[in-house]
Amino acid sequence: MDKDVGNHGKEFVFFKRCIGNVILIKKCGTLSANTKNEYNLKDKNSPVSNDDVVGFKAYNIAAGTVIRMYDDSQGSTQDDWCEIIFKKDCKRVRITDLEQQVDNDKIRMLYFRDDNLNGKVSRIEINPGAYTSPDDYPGYLAFYSKNDCEGGLSGCVNSSAATYNCTKDDSPIKNDDARSLVLYAVQADINIVVYDNSSESTSDDYCTISVLEDVPANEPCGIPTFEKNQTYEDIVKTDYEENNGLDGKVSSISIS
What we know:
Elements: E1 11-19, E2 23-32, E3 37-40, E4 55-61, E5 66-70, E6 81-86, E7 90-95, E8 102-103, E9 107-112, E10 123-127, E11 140-146, E12 150-158, E13 162-165, E14 180-184, E15 191-195, E16 206-211, E17 221-223, E18 230-232, E19 236-241, E20 252-255
Antiparallel strand pairs: 1-2, 1-4, 3-10, 4-7, 5-6, 5-10, 6-9, 8-9, 11-12, 11-14, 13-20, 14-17, 15-16, 15-20, 16-19, 18-19
């Protein structure tokens, strides 16, 4: 533990280099963890330098605090991003890689890959009172533009009950793009349906994805195609109703 932990307030100290995935050097900014805030690192007066952060040290962080870091300066989930939730009060936590999945007694960390996030962070969001119970932690669905969970991110949404029309301008998921899906920390008994039709009509192709067991936070479950009837890792089951193809043609999504 750092000898100067007592000299720090509730704060995140960011660094732009890491040696051997252990030692963080070259500080590039500090942010308070006392209040909810959002920072566009491209802003002229940003307290953290843009496209530099590869890791951080967190000091005296309260349980339930969440920090999110994005490649996109506006916080789009169609590019790389990560989320770290602090499960309990922590005097010091060190993160030396933003591109990893972690689930231990102190934190839950999820990384959503497009290409890279280390050294490309352009937005940071901090919320010290986001969650009061682990039951409140969100799961996520990350859609990918190629089969086998490859290619770029088509977008991410949390696993709360909702419907999305991908043809709308404000849709978090690109229209006619997704070919596969990764589930992160999604709870059992959630059902996801992806449709070719933007109005969720079952007269065209659709696939029902049933979550049979909780998806571990540090072991995401991939769905390589929407065009199969299959069970994956005894955790997720897919049922495909075929017309003329669904991969790369998803136009609406429902979660229940």
